[in-house]
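Q: How would the structure tokens look for this protein?
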Amino acid sequence: MATKMTPQVVAVLPFSLRSIYIRNSSTRTDDRFDPLLPGQQLMPLFRNGEVRCDCREHKISDNGKETVFLSCAFTSKFEFAYIQPTEGNQPVTDEDIEKAIAAQIIAEITADYLVNLPSLPDADVINNWASRNVILHTWPYWREFCHSTLSKMNLPVTIIPLVQMFPDDSHTNAAAPAKKAIQRKTKAAAK
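A: Here is the predicted structure in token form.
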């Protein structure tokens, strides 16, 4: 008995992960803060900024044969700080927070992808990928980096929470709010 074969539709993801790496990082401790004093009141502060995207067309020549491939690098900025409460008040404004920072860790982590499409993706695809997949891919690197850096700075280690994603856009991601990606397209040639 012959069976009828129906073609299956296979979804193609727009990107394939190529690498994840720290692009930039910085740490600082306020001059008036001594991390060795016991019993200090410190409030943890988590912030993350918008995701930058740099899409490129790469041309590589080898023995007269030219190969072209497309890539997009998404760079997310993460920040953790310990805030010292002021007399009876918690800092609210950005200016108050900056004045109250006892210690701070900032990292820019890049997730670099090969493009699985015939051309560079449009802004909607990039923004959707930046707000979901990039955060899922970079968040574990941020958690580990922050944890080990706090330890090296002789600060109490605060465990960064796991990232939470929701199935629709009606909720805000509590651990890493989705931000719009800033897109930049360039062409690069290598020989």
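The helical segments are 94-100, 123-152.

The longest helix spans residues 123-152.

Upvote if useful.
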